[in-house]
């Protein structure tokens, strides 16, 4: 399955810095868990998302997260987060209001 998305300059730069290839991103987009949070789509590759046949090859890719814009067609950034509470961090909404920049009560 081929997933077609546009990479921003920021995403290309971060992928280069972090050693994440286009094939890694494509694998994450086709196998990862999708979570909507904060107006963007997060695609996160968990250990259980990797099929058993692919595990020896793709286990190094565990923890890669791809952030897409609200349309799901533009990749904003790519990074690794292998922490135990990575999904909790994705689901947790920011305490700051985007409009005013103040803390909400």
Kindly summarize this structure in a few lines.
The protein has 105 residues and is an alpha+beta fold.
Write a structural description.
This protein has helices spanning 9-18, 22-31, 55-58, 86-91, and strands spanning 6-7, 33-37, 40-44, 64-68, 74-80. The protein has 105 residues and is of the alpha+beta class. It has a five-stranded mixed beta sheet with strand order 1-5-4-3-2. The longest helix has 10 residues, at 9-18. The mean pLDDT is 80.
Lay out the secondary structure.
Elements: E1 6-7, H1 9-18, H2 22-31, E2 33-37, E3 40-44, H3 55-58, E4 64-68, E5 74-80, H4 86-91
Parallel strand pairs: 1-5
Antiparallel strand pairs: 2-3, 3-4, 4-5
Name a few traits of the molecule:
105 residues, alpha+beta, five-stranded mixed sheet, 5 strands, 29% helix, globular
Task: State Rg.
Answer: 15 Å
Tell me about the largest β-sheet. Answer: 5 strands, mixed
Number of strands: 5
* Helix content range: 25-40%
Instruction: Give the uncertain stretches in residue-range form.
Output: none
> Could you tell me the strand content as a percent range?
15-25%
The total count of helices amounts to 4
What general form does the structure show?
Answer: globular
Count of separate structural domains:
1
Give the end-to-end Cα distance, rounded to a whole number of Å: 44 Å
Mean pLDDT: 80
* Run of helices and strands: EHHEEHEEH
Structural class by secondary-structure content: alpha+beta
Walk across the major sheet and give the strand order: 1-5-4-3-2
């Amino acid at each position: 399955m081929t997933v077609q998305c546009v990479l921003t300059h920021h995403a290309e730069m971060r992928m280069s810095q972090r050693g994440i290839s286009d094939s890694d991103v494509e694998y994450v987009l086709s196998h990862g868990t999708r979570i909507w949070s904060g107006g963007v789509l997060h695609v996160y590759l968990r250990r259980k998302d990797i099929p058993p046949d692919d595990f020896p090859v793709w286990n190094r890719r565990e923890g890669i997260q791809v952030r897409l814009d609200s349309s799901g067609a533009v990749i904003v950034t790519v990074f690794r987060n292998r922490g135990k509470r990575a999904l909790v961090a994705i689901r947790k909404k920011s305490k700051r209001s985007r409009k005013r920049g103040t803390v909400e009560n």
